[in-house]
Amino acid sequence: MERAEWLKQMRERAEKLYDQYAPLYWVSYGLGENETHREFLRKFLERVRPGGPLLSAGCGAGRYDGLLLEAGHPVVGIDQSAGMLQRAREHFPQAQFPQLRYEKMGMQEIPFRDEFDGVICVEALEHVCPEDYPSILKGFSQALRSEGWLYFNVDNTPSEDLMAAYQRAKDLGLPVVLGELVDRTDEAYEKVKGLEGIPPDEWGDAAVYHFYPTLEQVREWLAEAGLTIEAEGEGSGYYHFLARKEK
Predict the structure, then answer these.
(1) How confident is the model over 75-93, as pLDDT tens digits?
(2) Do the beta carbons of residue 66 and residue 85 sit within 8 Å?
(3) Using CB atoms within 10 A of its CB, is residue 12 exposed (0-12), middle (13-18) or buried (19+)?
(4) Could you tell me the maximum CA-CA distance found in the chain, to the nearest angstrom?
(5) Cα 209 → chain centroid
(6) What pTM was computed for the model?
(7) Cβ atoms < 10 Å from Cβ of 203
(8) For residue 114, which of 88, 186, 202, 244 sits 20 to 30 Å off, Cα-Cα?
(9) Per-residue DSSP letter, 139
């Protein structure tokens, strides 16, 4: 299979599986206890313009959107999974939270220009392929107003694990590049598709495409997007970036 067609299939599978996982999302995960995520969200909220509109990209079921609302910001949440957005709307009903709206949209298709004082993308870019990663960061930058802020994180998977997964995927004949964690994706997908609720972690996470760029590559892409890193750090299994759009 050609790489472009394979990547399209991976994206379609991810959307289907997140739709499938969605009904029990809040029951299984809730808000979570990722303290480093919360620390960087606090730093982010300390810096954005008070009351300014925020974009929650790859928002899923709205896991972190309540923190943005509590800080007094109107929020637009986007995600490509209709099932996850349905959970988000149930958790934050429009009648009770008129300052929050959700739209079905992939991060690859962001149309916004100079509309937000801040963008967050938490635990979502790991499902983005390297071909799309730099244009998505550019899309975040274009969505931001001058001197707006971006907070996002990337999975902190050891490089030796990625190299081993890359070699296994190549042996399977998959059109992979280094950094993609897909050596068990086909097997796991067959095991979990059609299951009710969220499958065991052993298979559920493996069934979805993942890509983990090097930190040096992320820093380069941020610079190309006109975003200046103001803080970064490691914790809760992720590496975190807080960046500002240049004037």
Answers:
(1) 999 999 999 999 999 999 9
(2) no
(3) exposed
(4) 53
(5) 12
(6) 0.95
(7) 16
(8) 88
(9) H
Query: What residue ranges of the chain have pLDDT lower than 50?
Result: none
For residues 174 and 181, the answer to whether their CB atoms sit within 8 Å is: no
State which H helix or E strand residue 154 sits in: strand 144-155
Q: According to the model, what pLDDT value does residue 193 have?
A: 86
Q: Residue 26: what pLDDT?
A: 76
Tokens of 158: 């050891």
Q: Are strands 227-235 and 238-245 parallel, antiparallel or unpaired?
A: antiparallel
- Can you list the domains of the chain with their CATH numbers? 1-24+158-211 (no CATH), 31-156+212-247 (3.40.50.150)
Decide if 108 contacts 136 (C-beta within 8 A): yes
Q: 27-47: string of b/e by CB count within 10 Å (b at 16+)? A: eeeeeeebebbeebbebbbeb
Does residue 28 come out as left (phi exceeding 0), alpha (psi in the -120 to 50 range) or beta? alpha
